[in-house]
């Protein structure tokens, strides 16, 4: 293990109850060390790894460990770039882990494939009560898979799907699931691609147990993220016009003109916020790149220091060889003088 890996291993191995390791620039190698420590720790219940860079490989290492760990109940892996590969690994663990109750996978670039894998796990998992999949890339197919899982799952009570790409099709599938599910108490679908069609389907589910968070604000004509990715230079006025045109094209939604205007203005504000988020994300990437460059420079300096130390050792060896040679020459010179003196005495 490297010095950093050993440090994290010791910290996790000796942790009790809760441990916060958020925003520590933990990568795949460090995640492996954490996973190894979790195999021997028997006291840690809550682990927070939010805002690191463990990636899919790091998620797989931790997921494998959770197949044997029997103490961890809360795991926060938000903003770690685990993607669908990492989500699939965690899903496999959820099929056998009977201890984890809270799982946060916020902002991890998880799409339909990852959501479908997690949905498969929810079909058999009997311990997870809270799941956060907010700010990912889950679309209707992923939402439909989760909806099917909700029909069978009898344990999950809180589900956060905020800020994904779920449309009316996915919302309608979830609404059908809510007709039979009686364990879910909180569902967040805000900031998705829902129109009044999807919202109405959710309202008509007849489920009196589940609270739909901010259901009246579900409608988001076109997500601000899509706009900013395709048209980063749009100002608020042009964005509002685009959002208004979208709502006017949805003939199945009959809303008052004043409401449409307010919602268009809200979409414009969402655009501005999304643009700021992108700017922050870009700055974070630039900062991470700078830190990587500095780390590489430090490594190069360390290598150069090692080379200098090696040269110093070589100089010491050469100096010893030189001293040895001088000693040998001095002895030979003494012998020659002795022979000359001896010959002179006998002439």
UniProtKB/TrEMBL annotation:
<dbReference type="InterPro" id="IPR052394">
    <property type="entry name" value="LRR-containing"/>
</dbReference>
<dbReference type="Pfam" id="PF13516">
    <property type="entry name" value="LRR_6"/>
</dbReference>
<dbReference type="InterPro" id="IPR001611">
    <property type="entry name" value="Leu-rich_rpt"/>
</dbReference>
<protein>
    <submittedName>
        <fullName>Uncharacterized protein</fullName>
    </submittedName>
</protein>
<dbReference type="InterPro" id="IPR032675">
    <property type="entry name" value="LRR_dom_sf"/>
</dbReference>
